[in-house]
Amino acid sequence: MIQNAAHLHLIINHWPLFGIPLAAVILSWGEWKGGPEYKKIGFMLLIFSALMTGLVSKSGDKAEDEIEHMPGISESMIEAHEDAAEPAFILSGVTALLALAGLWHHYRKDLIPRSLVVVTLLLSLVTIAFMARAANLGGKIHHEEIR
Fold first, then answer.
1. How far is Cα 40 from Cα 26, in angstroms, rounded to an integer?
2. Angle, alpha carbons 34-37-41 (nearest 5°)
3. How far apart are CA 40 and CA 31, in angstroms?
4. Running DSSP on this structure, what letter comes out for residue 144?
5. Rounded mean pLDDT of 37-65?
């Protein structure tokens, strides 16, 4: 049972961290070995991951309000996490827009330009790096073992 916004944030923050790499693997497979159905699934996972990133961001704001006054919680660590999460959130959204364009091509033209897949994959990798940094900083807020 979800107890509060901080608990919700801790539960759902893992989706983008694993969803985007999974989508990138599926999209890669679709481009180099599989076919359009794999690309479609990869694009859909990127869009879903971006939506989850939005929920993670929203729950993070509320989680901050709940924990910032707890003993042992550093405001500067929360701010560092928040500062790292913002570009990750934006990159996730841009990646989702490219994925949406890929789905549009899939359904309207039945052909997804290779350049669109490659750019989406490259941006996915950049997004993963930003997400990993934000996650690492977020973990340090309350996990002394990784500080």
1. 9
2. 110
3. 10
4. G
5. 94
